User: Fold this.
Amino acid sequence: MGTQYVITAAHCTIGADPSNIMVQVGDTSLGTSFEASSMTVAVSQIINHPNYDSTTLNNDISVLKLATALPFDTLPNIKPACLPNAGATFPGSGVVSGWGTIESGGYANSWLHEVNITIFEDGNCGSMNSQMTDAMMCAGLMAGGKDSCQGD
Assistant:
């Protein structure tokens, strides 16, 4: 099952048609041909969280079912996401990666970026505490300046 599904944000897929979405996997630079073993895969189904709320962004998660399974065994750059062990506690470290902007309102990138962040305990999200729900996690730096951005 894990070779045919990709997780993304529901605010990116709500109202979208699966035939208009393609997923690029295994790539690190979208502007360079043949720099990595990668492939583009069609999406056959969008499964948005049934309780997604576009006003609060609560349950902002979507699962994309790919039209074909990913070949984890033959393409070395395509790997499943690493998940924490059951019972993991926070705060803890994490990594955000993506081709999104590196500043609010900035331009999208053609190369994959990553940033190391801290995942905070529930109720420890500073000024954002009042906007957090049980379906959300708080991550970044308490001082600000490191987090995901548009397009990640």
The first strand starts at residue 5 and ends at 8. The CA atoms of residues 7 and 63 lie 5 Å apart. The radius of gyration is 16 Å. The helical segments are 10-13.
